[in-house]
Amino acid sequence: MALDMHRRDFLKTGLFGCALLATGSSLALLSGCSSNDGPAEGYLHLRQKDVDLLLPLTGVVLAQALKKSAASADTALKAYDKVLDGAMPGTRATLFQLFDLMQLGAARWFITGTWAHFNEQDSKTLTHTLQGWFTLDRTLSRMAWKGLVQPLMFAWFAQPQAGLTTGYPGPPQRVIS
Amino acid sequence: MQDLSTLKVQSKDPWKDPKANGWEVIDGRQELSDRTLEADVVIIGSGAGGGVSAEILSQKGFKVILVEAARLKSSDEFNLNEAEAYHDLYQEGGMRATKDGTMSIMQGRAVGGTTVVNWTSSFRTPPQTLDFWRDEFGVQGMDENTMAPWFAQIEQRLKVMKWVAHNRNNQIMLEACQSLGWQSDAIPRNVSGCWNLGYCGMGCPTNAKQSMLVTTIPAALDAGATLLHSAQADTLIIEGEKITGVRIKTLDDNKIATGATLTLKAPTVIVSGGSIQSPALLLRSNVPDPHERVGKRTFTHPTSFAFGIFDKEIAPYYGAPQSIYCDEFSHRDGIAGQAGYKMEMMALHPGMVGAFVAGFGQQAWDEILQLPNMGGSIAMIRDGFHEQSQGGAVELRDNGEPVLDYPINDYVLEGTRRAHLSMVEMFFASGAKKVRPSHSQADYYNNWQEAQLKLAALDYVPVATGIGCAHVMGGLAMGADDSRCVVNSDGSYKYLDGLYVMDGSVFPTSVGANPQLSIYGVSARNASLLADRLKG
């Protein structure tokens, strides 16, 4: 999802949000949070820092679905990673800027309403965090939700076995002649 | 309970052995060194505009090279796997969105373009739209009567007929419109021998859908055209005031350039990449554009959604996705008044529902388990007719990738509020027990009275208001008004000889209906005019 800011968003997001985006990536670089050290093991694009950031969220967002499929959050995050693989490099880059930003406590507070890193929150706290984030009306918060949670849900349920857990009987069988 | 999972689907893939058909197909993935090819006409993009143009021009005896960025994928590979289908057959694997992330864009990327994944709805361009194009932009020779034979020709070619076997999701709209006294009718579809499976959006596994992949492109190859796939048009070659060819970058399986550049030389180049890709190619090529209009006035039919839960099974994943439409609100305030919207239904498969459900965790899980009893509807706003609806602009990122900047403004949001009301009323009129509009603040409503009260309290702002797009149009507007249009009514680019645009980007506004038949008809007309002109 493209997350570039323009004047309209500046007006809606306010000074703090805009300053965060303008300086966030460089701050993240300075603090060592933004690294270009390639994808994490087993992933196509997500870096280890992204995995550390997103894995705890994934487990809560898809808790019941993963339990039903006896699957791990790692499997679901890899499905999300595969969805990102379809995007253009520039689209992925803007999303990764957002993930870099969310490594910073101040940015995490602004976007999701919590200072603590997601992997330092237990599942009950994370549920509370997600609930707060979902109801935040800040443009940047809604965009982050759309860039992360929405494609994550798609990525999980679009998989054939996961799709069957919804009551969907499945597609017809292809017979190749 | 409806269950098609044991049904065995078999069909003959016309692309199984292209060589045996005598077809010349070049796979860009295997092109590892530079070379030059020559043709009479090069067509960039193999969707609705490119496919129709390729068939007409090659059958008139011109040597055509048809270029497509996507890898060739055909029915033997259409395995009805939702994750694979979106990854392989949609722009950006379904991840495309407008610049500020507010609007998801569903646009095909395939040999055959979006026609491979669309839901087959085939409407003639509304006469009100054609009149508006003539009156406001100086579009010539495209009124209802002069276009009728072109539409009729395509309807016959692609076997367009009104559908009769409506699935339960579409029956919701039919029954509600009858009960509320709203206009509705059956949707004409471009199918032949359709199995009524419901997987149009994942590539038709039976080849019943008369997409470009199984109609005009095979016919063009039969007539001597060459298909070059996995090959992306990088820049146009311009010499003086003339176009002389196109530089192509071949792509590997991961859509990454192989390093080879193919130079396609031709005195005539047709750009048919679809809105977003076509304007981007012209921008990358620095074409003359004195009024800076390339990429401007790009439209999306901003589309909102509603979901109804019923006591009975709906099975929205099976059956023709769209077969009933409602035009009650399309022109209620005239052609250029408050936003008008066309209502249709939508197919719902698990991944798609996952993307649409509200919230996360238990709440989302509870909702998604309702899928078998869920109905889904859409409302598409006609954008581009009102002075407050000027559309978006295609821009280039630093690396040359296109991105559409389309700010959601109050005009769209006000129309979306009314569209939500109409869809919610429709669901309750057909017996839904609860209904939810696509808005992040909205929960399910239990009756129409409650819905009206709570909808009135929703804050209609961008992002929170769920709006998507499956029809990108405009960006290279046609017409006589040079201050707003860059293409003449015959598809020729105003400022370069030999360059033509034949796809939905020439539309000076949105269509106000699913656009494929509009693109076919206008492209058939202009490709035929071009063939006559080239024959001299």
From TrEMBL, chain A:
Top-level taxon of the source organism: Bacteria
InterPro entries in UniProt: TAT_signal (IPR006311)
Protein name: Tat pathway signal sequence domain-containing protein
Species of origin: Alcanivorax nanhaiticus
Automatic annotation (TrEMBL), chain B:
Source organism: Alcanivorax nanhaiticus
Pfam name, any one: GMC_oxred_C
GO molecular function, one term: oxidoreductase activity, acting on CH-OH group of donors
Record key words, sorted: FAD, Flavoprotein, Oxidoreductase
Family per similarity comment: Belongs to the GMC oxidoreductase family.
Species lineage: Bacteria, Pseudomonadati, Pseudomonadota, Gammaproteobacteria, Oceanospirillales
Segments forming domain Glucose-methanol-choline oxidoreductase N-terminal: 87-302
Protein name per the record: GMC oxidoreductase family protein
Glucose-methanol-choline oxidoreductase C-terminal domain sequence ranges: 392-522
Superkingdom classification of source: Bacteria
